[in-house]
Amino acid sequence: MNKRLIAINLPQFHPFKENDEWWGKGFTEWTNVTKARPRFKGHYQPHLPSDTGFYDLRLPEAREMQANLAKEYGIYGFCYYHYWFNGKQLMERPIKEILESGEPDYPFMLCWANENWNRAWDGSSDKKKVLIEQHYSEEDDREHIRFLCKNVFKDSRYIRVNGRPVFAIYRIGPIPHPDRTIQVMRDEARKYGEELYLCHFESWGEHGASYLKCGLDAAIDFQPHLYHYSVLNNWIRTKWFSLRNRINRGLGLPELGTVFSYKKYIEHEMELGIPEYKRFPCVTPGWDNSPRRVRQAYWALHNSTPELYKKFLTHTLAHFEPYSDGENFVFINAWNEWAEGNHLEPDQKWGRGYLDATKQAIDNI
């Protein structure tokens, strides 16, 4: 197959100083995962790992296990989230040790997760909730790219397009002058002999066509688009939930969740045409962020199965024509977003069902 599947990988599964301070000693993503409980009849929670166990990404064996499992089922590489806040990094240890050790021998790229960190897990700028805030400047853009050129892009495993390292920006919208930031990044990289291939994740209403005019090479679809889907399909219901949850917040009550059929959602997505601008497609095996949002409103795709996911991925692979030999990516969100009900890694309900479905979809093309 002439298409490269990239699974988005969250390096949250290990304790570190800031999480100890913000959430309590020893906190990792597994803390949220294991606390989860069903919110409605038939709600699948908690999602608990099977084959992999509750791994710790400080261990090289855990990182090797992830890579070997992904490789076995036909996934070309990982896209790791990279957290950079004006020179300060968070959750950097797994990537740092992958770079230093040379293991695992598995392709990877980075996505700059440039959201604020806050207690609502939603990237908002509410000053009462923000834990660490993202600030932008030309000086920081240059420092950031210098760091990546010196320490990351030179790695032989780093994913490239025709020799150009692929670097994604999670949210382009909050950057005050994206055209200037993109130009500064390119100029700085050229000092190190690198011609960047820059993308952004298309989500939050940040339409790819308008941002490609700022100098990006491509957009990356970032599934699922639940808020857009909610408004598009049931504006009245969306407004009712918003009103009800404002009342619940005022009364100190838990907020309601917005739940959709996974089957209906993927049918809607598969009916959409391919955009006229350059955008790499993405599929998701599911979504349910209720483990992170005990008293807040949550979003969930209900009744996902490996068979339905295989249908989604098969359709996406069949309809995507690479833009060139190197521009052939299909993204999967995600490899291990356990607290968002969104993972290919085996769980106690489905085992390796989603991995088997991935391999079958690849073999069908």
Question: What does this protein structure show overall?
Answer:
This protein has helices at residues 17-23, 29-35, 60-72, 93-101, 138-151, 178-190, 208-212, 226-233, 235-251, 262-271, 306-319, 353-364, and strands at residues 4-9, 77-85, 88-90, 108-112, 117-118, 130-132, 160-161, 164-169, 197-202, 218-221, 258-261, 279-280, 282-283, 287-288, 299-302, 329-332, 336-337, 342-343. The protein has one domain: Glycosidases (TIM Barrel), CATH 3.20.20. Strand 8, helix 6 (178-190) and strand 9 form a beta-alpha-beta unit. The protein has 365 residues and is α/β, with parallel strands linked by helices. The model has no long low-confidence stretch (mean pLDDT 91).
Short précis:
The chain is an alpha/beta fold and 365 residues long.
Q: Structural class, please?
A: alpha/beta
Amino-to-carboxy terminus distance: 7 Å
Mean pLDDT: 91
Principal-axis shape equals globular
Strand content: 15-25%
What is the H level of CATH, i.e. the homologous superfamily?
Answer: Glycosidases
> Helix segment count?
12
What is the level 1 CATH name?
Answer: Alpha Beta
What are its keywords?
three-stranded mixed beta sheet; 365 residues; eleven-stranded mixed beta sheet; TIM Barrel; 12 helices
Summarize the helices and strands and which ones pair or pack.
Blueprint: E1 4-9, H1 17-23, H2 29-35, H3 60-72, E2 77-85, E3 88-90, H4 93-101, E4 108-112, E5 117-118, E6 130-132, H5 138-151, E7 160-161, E8 164-169, H6 178-190, E9 197-202, H7 208-212, E10 218-221, H8 226-233, H9 235-251, E11 258-261, H10 262-271, E12 279-280, E13 282-283, E14 287-288, E15 299-302, H11 306-319, E16 329-332, E17 336-337, E18 342-343, H12 353-364
Parallel strand pairs: 1-2, 1-16, 2-4, 4-8, 8-9, 9-10, 10-12, 11-15, 13-16
Antiparallel strand pairs: 2-3, 5-6, 7-8, 14-15, 17-18
Helix pairs in contact: 5-6, 8-9, 10-11, 11-12
